[in-house]
Amino acid sequence: MLTFTVARSFQGLRTPNDNLELFAVPTVTRDDIRNLAIIAHVDHGKTTLVDAMLHQSGIFRANQRVAERVMDSIDLEREKGITILAKNTAVDYRGTRINIVDTPGHADFGGEVERILRLVDGALLLVDAADGPMPQTHFVVNKALEAGLTPIVVINKIDRPDARPAAVLEAVYDLLIDLEAPEAMLEFPVLYTCAKAGTCRRSPDAEDESLAPLFETILRCVPAPRHDPEHPLQAQVTTLDWDDYVGRLAIGRVYHGTLRSGATVALVRPSHQPGEAPGIESAKISQLFSYRGLERVPVTEVGAGELVAVAGIDAIEVGDTLADPEDPRPRPAMVIDEPTLAMSFGINDGPFAGREGTHVTSSKLRQRLMKEARGNVSIRVEPTEAPDTLQVIGRGELQLAILIEMMRREGYELVVGKPEVVTRDIEGRLCEPMERLWIDCPEEHVGAVTQALGPRRGRMTEVHGAGSGRVRVSYRLPARGLIGFRTELLTETRGTGIMNHIFDGWEPWQGAIPHRASGSLVADRSGRVTAYAIEQLQPRGTLMVGPGAEVYEGMIIGEHVRSSDLDVNITREKRLTNMRSSTGDELERLALPKRLSLEQSLEFIKGDEALEVTPAAYRLRKRTLGVTARRVHAKRAARPAS
Predict the structure, then answer these.
(1) In degrees rounded to 5, what are phi and psi of residue 545?
(2) Residue 293 — left, alpha, or beta (φ > 0 → left; ψ -120 to 50 → alpha)?
(3) Residue 564 CA to chain centroid, in angstroms?
(4) Whole-angstrom Cα distance, residue 107 to residue 118?
(5) What is the pLDDT of residue 4?
(6) CA-CA distance, 622 to 606, in Å (whole number)?
(7) Is 59 left (phi over 0), alpha (psi -120 to 50) or beta?
(8) In the prediction, which pLDDT does 12 show?
């Protein structure tokens, strides 16, 4: 049964586009619904807490086998231990449906958080009891404050031996004050949990309970959704999904009115320029779904304040509004932070093209990237001068690396270029994106890290102890200074350094930043790698291929000890003669090849190099494969302009 409460106060409706108060109307409150987003830094336990909430709400049968981190439904999420896409679920507690949205914790997927905060009326801020507020915590709290959401603070992992809940709570207060939060928002409720054990405390030293205090706090502190009963239908799309049976799904929230299955609605596209009229077309809803636990349940209608998945409208996009055909009123357009990193995506034009993948044409590549851009508004796809190459612009290296890995697993073959930052012209000056970088490392490595960041234009802004002999250091540097730094950090700190970063505005161009100092060892012919050739080339650098591997001309097979590139014959075989020595052939001692991951490969390549990605392998290569052609290009580039 639906519960409505008519509010006695009047609510002024504003539009973010013009910030003008339009009118005041009485509102109706849906007391049987709460809409909540869980926000946190990566690896602070969001998905694990959702698991515990699902179990204790009675969603699963007593004998039902449920995977750990059940909300991480994508293979890559389980492998990397991070949330990539925001996902909806719902639990019932004491007659109230709590819609929960699990959001990504990494800054590169911040576009998901920005969209999801439009769906909800409250936010549950999860903070690690030992780590405290981290870089992504700053980002998500700032977005929650912009949306006017007062957070429920949950200090998680209270069972850690190095837990310091009092200091972490103080750091949360400091964070809100730094972000200029209104005084009313500083009166937030605080709970202490161990998500893995499914327990909750009302104070750090209290006895462990079930998650009942958390559910009660959500019902008490998260505002119930409000709507105007006289307002025509308004529902806005924030996420797109796909179902094998019903096709494209548009996921969003009904703000006013009622959506009905089979009804004809107005599909209103937002205007992005001042004075531009929104586009309106007719559309028919074939099916509606509501959320019950992890399942989408077909329903005939969905009322105001509820989250819904709509099927049957193939042309729908993120940000569109479903409205009353007689009185179509669009919701304000979504404002998402601009992407800052660009990378070229092209077809595989190497000698091994078509051997290992099923999608190898430029049309297939274009369709897949356009599909990604439609569902993820934080990614842009733009044409380039080359007809078979597109430029993809995203939030960071990790976001683009995840896209590349997903395409590889889907059977695509592609060649991607070096990541480059996006620049802007601001008041006649060339400006570049800046990043705020946090590094957590043992105290003895701080000097080496600071020295490594010096040439990358990094400026130290803050240093404080993180406990257990570790130090947390904050820097500010250009975004391009982070390209390739993760590998260098692990080297300088012997694998003990942890880095996190978030976007921190635009500043004038900071000057040249050196990339990899070493050159590349490049194969000068096609064939199979021999052990004899590897033995002869080992003094020249670090090799990335082993005996028997197939290579082609222009393929990078190692890292040169000098700054210049070197073309080498990696397929050379030992000549056989009739001469024999008394000691016989010497034993060949070969070092293990250096295998680079996808992220390490993207950090390794220079401007004239590229990464070939297929379902079976990653291959580093030169953009121009032929030895002679590369030498001609080098001579032309060195020739002074006439």
Answers:
(1) -130, 155
(2) left
(3) 35
(4) 18
(5) 46
(6) 9
(7) alpha
(8) 35
**Helix, strand, coil percentages, rounded to 5, for the chain:** 25, 35, 40
Would the CA dihedral through 259, 226, 318, 279 be positive or negative?
positive
Helices 135-146 and 165-178, interaxial angle, to 10°? 50
For the purposes of burial, counting CB atoms within 10 Å of the CB of 294, is it exposed (0-12), middle (13-18) or buried (19 or more)? middle
Sheet strands (E) in 31-139: 33-40, 87-93, 96-102, 122-128
Report the pLDDT value the prediction gives residue 7, as an integer from 0 to 100. Answer: 44
**pLDDT at residue 11, as a whole number:** 39
Q: Tokens 């000068």 belong to which residue?
A: 524
Nearest by Cα to 398 from 488, 471, 496, 499: 499
- 469, burial (CB in 10 Å: exposed 0-12, middle 13-18, buried 19+): exposed
Sign of the Cα torsion 12, 14, 18, 23 reads negative
Query: Three-state DSSP class for 524?
Result: coil
Cβ atoms 532, 514 nearer than 8 A: no
Tell me the residue type at 314. D
Residue 367 makes CB contacts below 8 A (sequence gap 6+) with: none
Instruction: Give the pLDDT of residue 21.
Output: 36
SS (H, E, C) 149-216: CCEEEEEECCCCCCCCHHHHHHHHHHHHHHCCCCHHHHCCCEEEEECCCCEEECCCCCCCECCHHHHH
For range 162-179, the mean pLDDT: 89
C-alpha dist (Å) from residue 133 to 124, 475, 542, 567: 14, 16, 40, 49
User: Which residues touch 503 (CB under 8 Å, ≥6 apart)?
Assistant: 107, 110, 337, 340, 395, 433, 434, 435, 436, 479
Give the model confidence (pLDDT) of 509-549 as tens digits: 988 888 778 899 999 999 999 999 999 899 999 999 999 99
pLDDT of residue 272: 59
For β-strands 470-478 and 429-442, DSSP reports them as antiparallel
Cα–Cα distance between 418 and 344 in angstroms, integer?
8
Q: Distances in Å between the alpha carbon of 54 and those of 69, 71, 140, 492? A: 11, 10, 23, 42
Cβ pair 412, 368 in contact under 8 A: yes
> What's the one-letter identity of residue 353?
A
Beta-sheet pairing, 341-347 with 389-394: antiparallel
Find the length of the chain: 642
What is the distance between the alpha carbons of residues 294 and 131, in angstroms, rounded to a whole number?
30
Short-list 261, 294, 352, 354, CA closest to 619: 352
> CA-CA distance, 553 to 380, in Å (whole number)?
33
- CA 443 remoteness from chain centre: 30
* The two structure tokens encoding residue 284: 């028919």
pLDDT digits (tens, 9 = 90+) for 59-114: 655 555 554 555 555 666 666 666 666 678 888 888 889 988 888 766 667 667 77
Burial (CB count within 10 angstroms: exposed 0-12, middle 13-18, buried 19+), residue 99: buried
CB atoms near residue 490 (< 10 Å): 15
List b or e across 208-224, with b for residues whose CB sees 16 or more CB atoms inside 10 angstroms. Answer: eeebebbbebbbebbeb
pLDDT at 60 (0 to 100): 56
Please answer whether residues 66 and 89 qualify as being in contact, where contact means their C-beta atoms are separated by less than 8 angstroms. no
**Residue carrying structure tokens 């299955």:** 261
